[in-house]
Design goal:
By secondary structure, the protein is an alpha/beta fold. The chain contains eight helices and five strands. A five-stranded mixed sheet has the order 3-2-1-4-5, sandwiched between helices. The longest helix is centred in the C-terminal third of the chain and has 24 residues. It is globular. The termini are far apart.
């Protein structure tokens, strides 16, 4: 029986280098599940000779560790962070909006990558050339794990700022995810401009308010 890797490594990137590829970018997104806030993506091209220690799936790291790693990643890698807005989520659906954010992140890199390692099992429409979909990629590829850390840190910062403007929803701790406190606040305080109206709990409250 093959053991599941406990930490990401650089084997997928090295396999690409062995094929003559020069610039490999890891791509990941965060924020598909929340009821509020944007969906955020990051694209990261690591320097093979200067990879920060401790990269891992962002969900396995503390906020303090993610912040420290983000600072290191931004110093040594080519990084772009991009978002799709609540309006775009409601217009297109969350999957397409997350892909839009990924496409924007790749487009914003300082130099175009030659190959993409994309977390998940689907490749965004605009990134289908020279790309690999890597299931559980943030736990397998150091480039994808770096992207997951940077994206998570960026989105959490946005939600912290929004929590100051819209207190009571608990965004400073739940980041917009449908926690009990968040759902109770939706009923009590109502829907904000930053809530995703196409998501059922928000839609149901708006529908009830009209009737």
């Amino acid at each position: 029986m093959t053991k599941e890797k406990t930490a990401p490594d650089f084997s997928l990137e090295n396999a690409a280098f062995a094929r003559g590829i020069i610039r490999v970018a890891g791509v990941d997104e965060v924020g598909r599940g929340p009821l509020a806030g944007p969906v955020t993506a990051a694209a990261v091209v690591l320097d093979p000779n200067n990879i920060p220690d401790g990269l891992n799936d962002s969900k396995k790291l503390t906020a303090k560790r993610r912040d420290a790693l983000t600072e290191e990643i931004l110093k040594v890698a080519d990084v772009c962070i991009a978002h799709a807005t609540v309006e775009e989520i409601d217009e297109h659906n969350i999957l397409r909006a997350s892909h839009i954010a990924m496409e924007r992140a790749v487009a914003g890199l300082l130099s175009p990558p030659d190959h993409l390692l994309i977390d998940g099992n689907l490749i965004p429409l605009g990134l289908r050339k020279n790309s690999e979909a890597i299931v559980k990629g943030d736990a397998r590829s150091l480039s994808i794990s770096a992207a997951s850390i940077v994206a998570k840190t960026a989105r959490d910062s946005i939600m912290m700022d929004l929590a100051q403007q819209f207190p009571g929803y608990g965004w400073e701790t739940n980041a917009g995810y449908p926690s009990k406190k968040h759902k109770e606040a939706l009923v009590k305080l109502g829907v904000t401009p930053h809530h995703r109206r196409s998501f059922r709990p928000v839609h149901n409250i708006l529908y009830q308010a009209k009737n």
